[in-house]
Design goal:
The complex is a heterodimer of chains A (190) and B (1009).
Chain A lengths: L2 E4 L9 H4 L9 H10 L4 E5 L5 E10 L15 E9 L8 H15 L4 E7 L3 H9 L3 E10 L11 E9 L17 E2 L6
Parallel strand pairs in A: 4-5, 6-8
Antiparallel strand pairs in A: 1-2, 2-3, 3-4, 5-7, 6-7
Chain B lengths: L18 H9 L2 H15 L2 H11 L5 H17 L5 H10 L14 H11 L5 H11 L3 H14 L7 H14 L5 H21 L13 H14 L2 H8 L6 H6 L4 H13 L2 H16 L11 H13 L3 H18 L5 H17 L2 H4 L10 H13 L5 H11 L2 H11 L10 H19 L5 E3 L3 E2 L2 E2 L4 E3 L5 E2 L4 H19 L2 H6 L7 H16 L13 H4 L2 H17 L4 H13 L3 H8 L9 H4 L1 H4 L2 H4 L12 H10 L8 H6 L3 H15 L2 H16 L43 H5 L7 H18 L11 H28 L9 H22 L9 H22 L9 H9 L1 H31 L9 H33 L3 H10 L8 H9 L2 H24 L5
Antiparallel strand pairs in B: 1-4, 2-3, 4-5
Helix pairs in contact in B: 1-2, 2-3, 3-4, 3-5, 6-7, 6-8, 7-8, 8-9, 9-10, 10-11, 11-14, 14-15, 15-16, 15-17, 16-17, 16-18, 17-18, 18-20, 20-21, 20-22, 21-23, 23-24, 23-26, 24-26, 24-47, 26-28, 28-29, 29-30, 30-48, 37-39, 39-40, 40-41, 41-42, 41-44, 42-44, 42-45, 44-45, 45-48, 46-48
The chains are: A alpha+beta (190), B mainly alpha (1009).
GO molecular function (chain A): protein N-terminal-methionine acetyltransferase activity
Protein name (chain A): N-alpha-acetyltransferase 20
Organism (chain A): Podospora pseudocomata
Chain lengths: 190, 1009
């Protein structure tokens, strides 16, 4: 039922199956087009037979600004998953996994050291999914989110910065086993 | 659009400028800057200081100071000298409010920047000049700069200059009059680059060949647009730049794009070869196994095989490749496993019947049926199972379908199915049975005239053996009863209820959709209703339609997250005039930002005619839409286009340019402007400006093709491809279209002309000259509007794109514009009045009479029955058109008569007024319009009175569920059970009645004088 291909702007007119889902954020046009303009091969979609978008992933290839080169929080050239979503009707088919693998392949093609992403600490399902794909916690970003997904009495939530090494990181220098013990401030994320 | 390069502040001054002047400039202390700059210019004679002074003066309030910079820019353009880049920056900043209005960038700053780059090609500022031209979408200057840069940096490692030049030349070739020159140039440049790639053993970055995926795809895009088919096909098979070669390098984009082109050309042999070779790459390890294992590729492979020169051999090969993938299936992810299963199903359906059933055995349990069964064996519990097989089931012959539903489907969950499995199968069966009611094979033709009487049932239903219409009402009734029983079974079984959260999809939702859709069909609802002059309820049985709504609404409480159901209900509530409740259901969908362009028409299209009261809320109703377009179309260039240039994403550039063009000419954008203006007019509000002057209407001119992109993808679709989709049944008239949007836009232009009032302080010294100019403008505008309206209305496709009420309104405007044109151009001295006057006034008078008698008079008395009252409440769009036509007549007459009065007052000679017969005709029309408007107002008053009556809940429930203590039919009984009787339906009835009351309240605020 699904076809995988690179995103094209007309897909923005076929997003209802994904974006009417309350868990999927809808951004301004410039946000989508920025990714399509700069990293088109890292913006992939899954479409159904009627051309409706039933899943997509948006990512980028970057490093921290040079000014932070000597900071311990400096991020070398890497791929980053900005958003990944699958429509409710297309879940449990591995579409999210396939989209993520495609982004990893694009990361490898772009000679990135690793792929990273942020996920809410309480989003156990997503964390388990990423772990099953070889991602591990690299650090904890304290109070990264301005709200809490499960506890309305709290006004913030921590994020896990999860990583998966790519082919370039032969010695696995960019991951660590005790990531949960490394806590950082949101201001240290660039 | 206003120029915004300096949105965040002025350019930096040259570092050679002294600190005192620098700090005054950065502080925005303009008077100090002007004084200091003049002083420095006197001292150093450096014209840069003069430029600082002139540019800074443009920041002052006085018109003379503001505009002085324009003279300096003009001098620069004319001088043909190379300008100073820092001066250019300052002037651009100073002119930011003029660009796009008094100044055309493409004739001033663009050529100046191109001139500067030509003289300073190796400067790092050159790219910034290119960016500046692109931000203004001045493609001519941008291309000239890119060509200069390409020449300067040829054979360097930065390959972007070469491809910027090519891409811009290509973009120009798509827009310019000199298309041929540019297209030839682009094709030749890329052919040369392609040849270099093909002929080089190893291409270096400094070579001018095609290296990256983006460069290769740009080449093919250009070939597709400007090259020959033969050239395209030949290159597609080439060893380095061919689609298969690119796939081996992990580049899938070209492969996907070329298949689309080949299909358009009907190049089936090539499609076949490419799909086969691409799929085999996965088998022989040249790519990952499932790299191109998309269902679309399989479907094209199979379709191409059936069309191939040697179809038998090709189909054998398809099966062979598929077999190899089936062997690999265990290694595939669930998605690809499913794609392979669907490919097998597709193959079975596309193979010739002689191949799949060579012995012509009894076809009921055919290989097609078996394959659907095998597919469902694996996937029947999955969310998408119905959508996956619906199309195939609809293709089955009647006997096959019967066997499938009776013998195959029930056995799918095995010998000892759980209750949940049984109910999933039941829900699937109901949905498929519904789909089959929309398929022709379930009906056979039957003589409809018996003994001279038309029986109205031209078919014999093969399922229930009754005489039938299409769809068969007997089958729909049976379906409702079966689905209702299954629904009831679930709700009364704790074990089943407990199992639901573990299922992919709530079967109650599917059953409710079957019942709802069936009831909608039974109610008589069909695409194109309501007809003008008729209420929806004259063609539809209101009780049954409202049962469908009640039932679906009840289901929404159980499954509130189902967006398809929610959208269905939004449309249904709009259909019967319950807009405020529709809005309550719409709001949680949170349609915002980028998805508004495609989704907003689902709620907002025609909203001012349905319920103008919604515009009276605390927040302007259309503000999010307006804000989205204002934000996204702020600059003349496509959003983020420079990012694509700087990243070397050439296909992104082309796609973004195309998308931007469509967004600027979107039907939803026109809808946003028009609906808001119509609502403002309805309430007698003042419009800020003419629609032509609206910043978002810049790209909308007469010959613009307006684009509609409404996204119906989330609507639940039980229908087969043999008939219209469900949204066409429940939509209040045809969806957005180029024609309707243009007509709506023209209507606003016409009303703008009629309602224009000059500023109070406008007192022309030469009154006669001013009056002549005004008249000439009015005549020119009226001619243009009348011609456009008439042309659009005469297009054969237009009637199908409008509701009858809309046709009536735009026809009236066409007549009125012709009448006004004649009225003010006809000399007073003319002895005989032209025929056009009677040819326009007569139909207008007839229209007003028809509207009054057809839509108002009978209802201006209190409706005798609840159904009649409901009929009026639901038909507000027709009522709106009465008000629109009458108001347009009134304004037109007022415009002509006011012109007459002004002319008579100005020219005391008595020669300049209008022809007396014209004046008389206009007065007669004005009076007829006033009468109609008065009656329309009375109609609203009657409706208000009706809605204020007590007992509405009971009245409505009587219509929907039958009167209390009276025997009702089986269907009503079933619906009643599901909604838990009148008690359960009371809350719903309250919401509906409140919705109608809100609607009438809104109409009560509308101005009729």
């Amino acid at each position: 039922m699904a076809n995988f291909r690179r995103f094209r702007p007309d897909d923005l007119n076929k997003l209802s199956k994904c974006n009417l889902d309350p868990l999927t954020e809808t951004y301004e046009l410039s946000f989508y087009l920025q990714y399509y303009a700069k990293w088109p091969s890292l913006f992939q979609v899954a479409e159904d037979e009627n051309g409706n978008i039933i899943g997509y992933i948006m990512g980028k290839l970057e490093s921290s600004p040079d000014v932070y080169k000597f900071s311990e929080h400096y991020l070398p050239w890497h791929a980053h998953i900005t958003a990944v979503t699958v429509a409710p009707e297309a879940r449990r088919l591995g579409i999210g996994k396939l989209l993520t693998e495609q982004l990893e392949a694009a990361g490898d093609a772009g000679n990135a050291w690793f792929v990273d992403l942020f996920v809410r600490k309480t989003n156990y399902k997503a964390i388990k999914f990423y772990e099953s794909m070889g991602y591990s916690i690299f650090r904890v970003v304290k109070e990264y989110y301005g709200d809490h997904s499960t506890d309305p009495t709290q006004d913030s939530e921590d994020a896990y910065d999860m990583r998966k090494p790519l082919k370039r990181d032969v010695k696995k220098e960019h991951i660590r086993a005790d990531g949960e013990k490394h806590e950082i401030d949101p201001t240290d994320v660039w | 659009m206003a120029y915004n390069r300096y949105r965040y502040g002025p350019p930096a001054l040259k570092s050679s400028v002294d600190v005192q002047l620098q700090s005054a400039f950065s502080d925005g202390n303009w008077s100090a800057v002007i004084r200091l700059a003049a002083k420095r210019f006197a001292t150093f004679k450096d014209p840069y200081y003069e430029a600082i002074r002139v540019s800074t003066e443009a920041q002052l309030q006085g018109t003379a100071e503001k505009c002085a910079v324009l003279v300096h820019v003009d001098e620069l353009v004319r001088s043909k000298k190379t300008p100073d880049i820092n001066t250019l920056d300052l002037y651009e900043w100073a002119c930011q409010d003029f660009i796009g209005y008094e100044i055309d960038f493409a004739e001033t700053f663009g050529p100046l920047r191109a001139r500067w780059v030509k003289a300073n090609a190796s400067s790092p500022m050159a790219s910034s000049c290119l960016q500046g031209c692109l931000e203004q979408w001045d493609l001519v200057s941008a291309q000239q700069i890119a060509a200069t840069l390409d020449k300067t940096y040829a054979n360097t490692t930065d390959r972007r200059y070469m491809f910027w030049n090519i891409t811009l030349t290509f973009l120009l070739s798509c827009t310019e009059a000199s298309r041929k020159v540019y297209s030839l140039l682009t094709v030749r440049q890329l052919q040369k680059a392609a040849d270099i790639t093909e002929n080089s053993e190893k291409l270096e970055k400094t070579d001018r060949g095609l290296l990256t995926e983006e460069e290769v795809c740009l080449y093919y895009r250009v070939l597709l647009s400007h090259g020959t088919k033969e050239e395209f096909l030949a290159r597609l098979r080439s060893p380095k730049l061919g689609a298969i070669s690119q796939l081996k390098q992990g580049h899938k984009l070209l492969f996907c794009e070329c298949l689309d082109a080949l299909e358009t050309w009907g190049e089936w042999d090539t499609i076949y070869e490419l799909c086969r070779d691409a799929l085999k790459l996965g088998l022989d390890g040249s790519t990952t196994p499932f790299f191109v294992c998309d269902l679309r590729i399989w479907k094209r492979f199979i379709a191409a095989a059936t069309e191939a020169t040697n179809a038998d051999a090709a189909l054998d090969e398809v099966q062979e490749v598929l077999k190899q993938f089936i062997e690999l299936k265990d290694k595939a992810t669930p998605m690809y496993k499913k794609n392979i299963s669907l490919a097998l199903l597709e193959t079975t359906f596309r193979l010739p019947s002689t191949t799949i059933n060579p012995d012509h055995e009894d076809t009921a349990m055919s290989p097609k049926v078996v394959q659907i069964g095998l597919f469902l064996d694996q996937y029947y519990e999955r969310f998408a199972a119905f959508d996956d097989v619906k199309g195939y089931v609809a293709e089955l012959g009647y006997e096959e379908a019967k066997t499938f539903l009776e013998d195959v489907l029930p056995k799918i969950p095995g010998e000892n199915p759980t209750k949940a499995q049984q109910i999933i199968i039941k829900a699937l069966e109901c949905r498929l049975r519904y789909t089959l009611t929309t398929c022709p094979q379930t009906l056979s033709p039957h003589p409809t005239v018996v003994e001279g009487t038309d029986q109205g049932k031209p078919f014999h239903c093969r399922v229930c053996s009754n005489l039938a219409k299409s769809p068969c009402e007997g089958c729909l009734r049976k379906l409702i009863i079966d689905a209702a029983d299954a629904h009831r079974q679930i709700t009364s079984d704790k074990e089943l209820l407990a199992a639901i959260p573990r299922l992919d999809r709530d079967p109650r939702l599917d059953l409710a959709l079957v019942m709802g859709n069936s009831l909608l069909k039974l109610s008589g609802l069909r695409p194109g209703l309501p007809n003008f002059g008729q209420s929806l309820w004259q063609d539809v049985q209101p009780g049954i339609l409202l049962q469908a709504v009640l039932l679906l609404d009840t289901q929404l409480k159980v499954t509130p997250k189902d967006n398809g159901l929610r959208l269905l209900l939004v449309k249904l509530y709009l259909l019967f005039g319950c807009a405020s409740y529709a809005h309550q259901l719409w709001a949680p969908l949170d349609v915002k930002r980028t998805i508004q362009d495609a989704l907003s028409p689902l709620f907002f299209d025609r909203i001012s005619s349905i319920s103008p009261g919604l515009f009276q809320g605390t927040r302007p109703l259309m503000e999010p839409l307006r804000a989205y377009y204002t934000q996204s179309l702020r600059d003349p260039s496509p959003v983020r286009i420079w990012d694509a240039f700087s990243s070397g994403s050439y296909t992104s550039i082309l796609d973004m340019a195309e998308y931007d063009k469509k967004l600027r000419t979107s039907c939803t954008l026109v809808m946003t402007l028009v609906e808001e203006r119509r609502a403002t007019r309805l309430f007698g509000g003042k419009l800020d400006a003419d629609i032509d002057d609206h910043i978002l209407a810049t790209d909308i001119v007469e010959d613009t093709t307006l684009v509609h992109k409404t996204d119906y993808g989330s609507f639940p679709s039980l229908e087969s491809a043999n008939g219209p989709p469900i949204q066409e049944f429940i939509r209040l008239g045809p969806g957005p279209s180029n024609e309707r949007s243009h007509l709506a836009f023209l209507a606003e232009q016409y009303l703008d002309l009629l309602t224009y009032t000059p500023p109070k302080d406008y007192k022309p010294s030469k009154a006669a000259e001013a009056a002549a100019r005004d008249k000439a403008y009015a005549l020119e505008t009226l001619t243009r509007i009348n011609t456009s309206l008439t042309d659009l209305l005469h297009k054969p496709s237009t009637p199908k794109l409008l509701t009858p009420a809309e046709t009536n309104y735009y026809t009236a405007l066409s007549l009125l514009s012709a009448l006004v044109l004649t009225a003010i151009s006809l000399p007073k001295s003319e002895t005989s009045i032209p025929k056009i006057v009677s040819q326009t006034t007569q139909p207008l008078k007839t229209t007003l009479t028809t509207l009054r008698t057809g839509l108002l008079s009978p209802k201006s008395t209190v409706p005798a029955t609840t159904q009649q009252a409901i009929s009026s409440l639901c038909d507000m769009p027709s009522f709106a058109s009465v008000r629109d036509v009458a108001f347009a007549v009134k304004l037109s007459a007022a415009f002509v008569l006011s012109h007459h009065e002004k002319e008579t007052a100005r020219d005391k000679s008595g020669k300049s007024g209008l022809h007396k017969e014209v004046v008389a005709e206009m007065k007669a029309l004005e009076s007829a319009a006033a009468k109609t408007l008065g009656e329309a107002k009375g109609h609203v008053g009657v409706l208000k009175g009706v809605m204020n009556e007590s007992g509405w809940l009971d009245k409505l429930l009587d219509v929907v569920l039958g009167e209390e203590d009276r025997e009702v039919g089986e269907l009503t009984e079933k619906v009643s059970e599901i909604v838990e009787g009148r008690g359960g339906a009371e809350e719903w009835a309250g919401k509906v009645v409140d919705g109608w009351r809100e609607g009438v309240k809104g109409w009560g605020m509308v101005k009729f004088e």
